[in-house]
């Protein structure tokens, strides 16, 4: 599962799952471009990676910005091998209080952002008849639901519809498009919820632990490698078995 010598872009790569992806790719020998709307944070993240890395500021909701990102990477390295379209937001809002602005903002970043990032990189991948694209979706939306995240769940499910059709359209150029579906992953945002809340989350996971950003990174690294070259238009769930029990009683049965 090697991505050695690949040129890999990670959007939303300055923190959380994005940084975990960037770190795994870097450890596996890729040159990583940390792309994030927070450019100073992207620069700090790139400096922390073990291998060669650069930082680029990007707003994935703006076509001009994603095109500038792709152009900057090609100007620097001559090609784009891997795109990890990971940038995403997840503000909570109950359905009856969910505003149109909130709905639009989440879908702009999560869905349109992935689309624009992919579209910006595709011409350069086609030029070399090679590309590995991995989107960060979620179990929330495609597989399960959670109160307050109707807009988020809708955006993550929409990403999978995009993946399936896009994969057909680019397969002739040896470009694959897949998605990872993380479950509950321990990032800085989750830590703010407190240890009691985290313990309750752990109880719903057969593995008994929250995932780490690196767990997602390893899945992405596989899909971004040559060994996954015959895998496209599909998903890889990274949830420690979280979506397997039909109820909490199923977990209690094995205690």
Concise description?
The chain is 45% helix and 15% strand. It is of the alpha/beta class and 255 residues long.
Describe the structure.
The structure is a single chain. The two termini are 35 Å apart. The protein has helices spanning 16-27, 39-48, 63-77, 100-127, 150-170, 188-191, 195-203, 213-223, 248-253; strands spanning 7-11, 31-36, 53-57, 82-85, 131-136, 175-182, 235-238. The chain has a seven-stranded parallel β-sheet with strand order 3-2-1-4-5-6-7, sandwiched between helices. 45% of the residues lie in helices and 15% in strands. It has a single domain (7-253), classed as 3-Layer(aba) Sandwich (Rossmann fold), CATH 3.40.50.720. With 255 residues, the protein is an alpha/beta fold.
Helix content: 40-55%
First-to-last CA distance: 35 Å
Radius of gyration, in angstroms, nearest whole number: 18 Å
For the record, the CATH class is: Alpha Beta
Give the CATH topology: Rossmann fold
Structural class assignment = alpha/beta
Specify the number of helices.
9
Shape: globular
Q: Under the CATH scheme, which architecture would be assigned?
A: 3-Layer(aba) Sandwich
CATH superfamily: NAD(P)-binding Rossmann-like Domain
Low-confidence stretches: none
Please trace the helix and strand order, writing H or E for each element.
Answer: EHEHEHEHEHEHHHEH
Domain count: 1
Average of pLDDT: 96
Outline the biggest β-sheet: 7 strands, parallel
- Total count of strands: 7
